[in-house]
Amino acid sequence: MMAGKNVADIVVIMKTLPTKEAVEGLSNKVNEEVNKLTRAMGTGSVTCACNERGFTVTAAGAAVRVLVTTLHQNLRKLEPEVG
Q: Which GO terms describe its biological process (predicted)?
């Protein structure tokens, strides 16, 4: 994180279309793994909150925005009302 900025961005590119269920599953797995680490280190807990673009991981005054997208060729598979 840059000095004075408490938010970092990460982009995850999925090989398949990122369905709501897939993004929630990834969020849950990240939350589970990060909380295992924080418990082992004796630090505070971490929360994950899903949104329309991915999810945000928040802990101790800092956050990581995880933006989820897919490969360009998969955009053709989107239904017009979804995209």
A: positive regulation of DNA-templated transcription
